[in-house]
Write a structure and sequence with these properties.
The complex is a heterodimer of chains A (153) and B (416). With 153 residues, chain A is mainly β. Chain A contains two helices and seven strands, in the order αβββαββββ. Chain A has one domain. Helix content of chain A is 8%, strand content 31%. Chain A has a five-stranded antiparallel β-sheet, with helices on one face. The chains are: A mainly beta (153), B alpha/beta (416). At the A-B interface, β3, β4 and β5 of A face α5 and β5 of B.
Chain lengths: 153, 416
């Protein structure tokens, strides 16, 4: 694919993940409604963001098990303008970082949504708390891209 | 079915640094350093800068040339003698252009340091090492940037950061302020830091800028009420937690301690220098390790004090990188001025203002003087050592200057 053919945003102007070889299994998983995290095939440790070598045992073999989808909110922000136009139209909206139940050092950036298909500005930011339990949901933002987001348990 | 996942905390292969007590295997390597090889062997003998403004007419190249020649003039060294250069990888004007325009002679050392504002003090450190090692004799470090009138870097849609942006940007974590706000919220949650603490930082920098006629905010006082009423940018950070957007350029000239004796200005000796890239660090989006609030300052600080004849107790003035207010409490902890989690309370009772325990950012810093990737902090460190700051700390024997916390970083300890 040439640079000109790389799709930067979806039809609504939201950024698409600029996918690379290391992260491809993650995005293949989210399209199927699965939250997959890279795991070293030798020592068994999860790692994120994905990369070619395990920093703990230097193995280059890995697999991608499906996570339970349970997590807790580790931190969050509420973004206000100036922002890219598509995001500014939704501001203020939340962005959260969650810690996965399987390993609290595996954290994912996401959004807290009120329902599976809900927008990222629907939850009242004043009600969000660090430590809240959440569960993964998936939202299709382009034909070949689904983002994991999070809803309250 | 959920697969069995082994907990990293229980793994025998655990390599996370143990912050409390036992030294990690990595530190053992450091213990064979030869402390003092660089110590006081070189000095900053010239500093120069342009005006700072939201918009300046000249190009970045022209601004760079002006600042560099001003620094050389300050030192009393002819530009034809320059044989070493160091700058940031984000610097747009390269050494070839600078050398050609200022009329440098044969250049034998040139180096660029990565990670944005983390590279500032490393430009000084790399030149100090080069001069101490005989690779050059007159080194120039510089940064020229039209960040005020130029494009905001985060509006670049295709740029991939060191940790790929695919893991943060699609969800709307778009800007550096969002990335640091995420760490700020966590810092508040873990250690009880408040917006009042962040205001202490913003107000201290502003008070110092109000004494500095070259500062962007020289004539613009700031009150706590105005801070609290300011618009949000990324909660919990408001407008005044963010650095300025500045056009401007700065430069510094470094020579050997021996050569320094012949220069116009009293030397600011490079007493110690360190860089820091912690284990499993992820730059601004440092969310993926055991302890994201234990940042690059801790790595750089550990080496810096090991190489120095001083301790944090000896330091009464510091220039600490402040793209965002939060970076100052985090850096105060990393460089050992207080304990873990105590950086916020350290700022209470005027402790970081003139007359306090540790005067911080005495020219106004990135928050209130100018944001030129922290190079203004270096020049202000030199002025403190010379005794010429507009917010001079009496009797300051040493001045710590740090670069960006939250990215692979660097620091220098300057002494009289």
């Amino acid at each position: 694919m040439t640079e000109a053919e790389v799709q930067i945003t979806n039809a609504d102007g939201f950024l698409l993940p600029l996918r690379d070889e290391d992260g491809e299994p993650f995005w293949e998983g989210t399209l199927k409604g699965e939250l997959r995290i890279q795991r070293c095939a030798s020592c068994g440790r999860l790692r994120f963001p994905p990369g070619p070598m395990c920093p703990w045992c230097r193995s280059m073999e890995s697999d991608w098990p499906v996570m339970s989808g349970g997590a807790t909110i580790w931190s969050f922000v509420v973004a206000h303008p100036p922002l890219l136009p598509a995001y500014a139209a939704l501001a203020p909206y939340n962005v959260i970082v969650v810690s996965l139940d399987e390993d609290p050092t595996i954290r994912l950036v996401g959004n807290l949504v009120a329902s599976e298909g809900g927008p990222i500005n629907e939850v009242d930011p004043a009600t969000i708390r660090v430590g809240e339990p959440v569960r993964v949901v998936f939202q299709r933002i382009a034909e070949n891209v689904a983002l994991p987001r999070w809803s309250r348990v | 079915m959920v697969p069995q996942i082994r907990s990293p905390r229980g793994s025998s292969l655990m390599r996370w640094p143990s912050f409390a007590s036992s030294p990690s295997p990595f530190l053992t390597v450091r213990q064979v350093n030869l402390p003092g090889v660089l110590k006081d062997r070189t000095a900053i003998v010239g500093i120069g800068q342009t005006a700072f403004a939201k918009h300046l007419e000249p190009s970045e190249k022209a601004l760079a040339c002006r600042a560099i020649v001003a620094a050389l003039d300050d030192a009393g060294i002819d530009p034809s003698e320059v044989d070493g250069f160091a700058s940031y990888t984000m610097e747009e004007t390269d050494e070839v252009e600078i050398a050609k325009n200022i009329g440098a002679g044969d250049v034998t050392f040139f180096s660029k340091i990565g990670f944005g504002g983390g590279g500032g003090c490393a430009t000084i450190g790399h030149l100090a090492m080069a001069i101490a090692a005989g690779q050059a004799t007159v080194g120039v470090a510089w940064r020229s940037r039209k960040r005020g009138s130029g494009q905001r870097p985060w509006t670049n849609l295709v740029q991939q950061l060191p940790t790929p942006a695919q893991w943060s940007r699609p969800w709307g974590l778009l800007r550096p302020v969002d990335e640091i706000a995420m760490l700020t919220r966590r810092y508040m949650h873990e250690f009880g830091a408040t917006r009042d603490h962040l205001a202490n930082v913003a107000l201290a920098c502003r008070a110092h800028a109000n004494r500095n006629p070259n500062a962007t905010m020289y004539e613009r006082p700031l009150t706590r009420e105005a801070y609290m009423a300011a618009r949000w940018i990324s909660e919990p950070l408001c407008l005044f937690d963010n650095c300025l957007e500045t056009d401007g350029a700065l430069a510094a000239v470094i020579v050997s301690a021996e050569r320094a004796k012949d220069c116009r200005q009293p030397p600011a000796y490079v007493h110690a220098f360190a860089q820091g890239l912690p284990t499993q660090h992820h730059t601004m989006v440092n969310y993926w390790n055991e302890d994201p609030l234990h940042g690059p300052s801790w790595s750089a600080g550990q080496l810096l004090w090991k190489l120095a004849d001083f301790t944090p107790d000896d330091v009464t003035v510091a220039q600490i990188y402040d793209a965002f207010t939060t970076l100052i409490p985090l850096s105060l902890e990393g460089y050992g001025f207080c304990g873990r989690g105590e950086g916020a309370t350290f700022t209470e009772d005027g402790a970081i203002e003139i007359g306090g325990r540790l005067a911080v950012n005495t020219s106004g810093g990135g928050l209130s003087e100018a944001y030129v990737h922290g190079f203004n902090l270096i020049n202000e460190g030199v002025r403190q050592i010379r005794g010429t700051s507009t917010a001079q700390v009496e009797g300051a024997e040493v001045c710590l200057v740090t670069s960006g916390e939250g990215v692979p970083t660097s620091a220098v300890l300057l002494r009289r």
